[in-house]
Amino acid sequence: MNTDLLAPASTDVHVEEAGDHGPLLLCLHGIGSSSAAFAPQLAELSAYARVVAWDAPGYARSPDPEVALTLDDFADTAARLIRERGGSAHVLGVSWGGVIALRLASRHPDLVASVIVADSSPGSGTDETKAAGMRARATELAELGPRAFAEARGPRLVSPGAPAGLVRRIVDTMAASVRLPGYGYAAESMASADLRAELPTVTAPSLVLCGDQDEVTGVEASQAIAGALHKTAFVIVKDAGHLANQEQPGRFNAWVLSHLRITARIPE
């Protein structure tokens, strides 16, 4: 696995890469994570695709942005990453990363060969209470600090039956990844997002997945996304919470690979 730094207009972005052939699979993590969340995808799917996972601007090993970033800015940074590598990408986004992926698909359709949205939503801006709760997270992070913040939030992201080792990895990843101001910009981008009107404009084929025990965004939010998209498939991942790609990587990767075999014509 290689690490690299992308230098877009406003900030550098750290990425993890694996695989030297096949289509480009760009992985965008959730609001409390980093490229480390995609270790199972980097390990397994790199046999079939060039897998690239970012640390979003202001997260983990990516430097802090010099200016406040909006959802469009996060999507545009991802677009520059794709352009650096040429052609188009199949974009996999988890939770907040799914919101970015959908905005990327509507804003830069020429760069998105397909979109894979996992345990996501149309944005927190669909509901005033959800938006307020999302904005409050930045204050909570400032008050608690990254470690206590992660200890409080991390265990909620998996099912009750998740192994203790997985819970610890998720908490440790969050603690090492989130900080201000980047997390605050991400939270505001989610709080301001309401993608319901633009989802039908996404022309790329799509796959929507959700853990059957996701209590964060929930199955209904994923159903709403799938119902609004064209050329889509909707999959429930059994025995998984909000982070299905980490809790059930075998099942998750099998569905992603099946999607890529169809959309990227990867041979059996």
Features:
268 residues, alpha/beta, Rossmann fold, 42% helix, globular
Structure characterization notes:
The chain contains 10 helices and 8 strands. It has 268 residues and is α/β, with parallel strands linked by helices. The longest helix has 17 residues, at 128-144. Strand 5 (89-94), helix 3 (96-107) and strand 6 form a beta-alpha-beta unit. 42% of the residues lie in helices and 17% in strands.
Major β-sheet profile? 8 strands, mixed
Please compute the radius of gyration using only Cα atoms: 17 Å
Q: Report helical residue fraction.
A: 40-55%
Task: Give the neighbour order of strands across the main sheet.
Answer: 1-2-4-3-5-6-7-8
Number of helical elements:
10
Q: What is the CATH homology-level superfamily?
A: Alpha/Beta hydrolase fold, catalytic domain
The total domain count is 1
How many β-strands, per DSSP? Answer: 8
Given helix and strand content, the structural type is: alpha/beta
Question: What CATH architecture label applies?
Answer: 3-Layer(aba) Sandwich
Average pLDDT figure: 95
How would you name the oligomeric state of the polypeptide chains in this document? single chain
The level 1 CATH classification is: Alpha Beta
Could you tell me the CATH topology label.
Rossmann fold
Distance between the termini: 24 Å
Shape: globular
Portion in strands: 15-25%
Instruction: Give unreliable regions as ranges.
Output: 3-11
Q: N-to-C SSE series?
A: EEEHEHEHEHHHHEHEHH
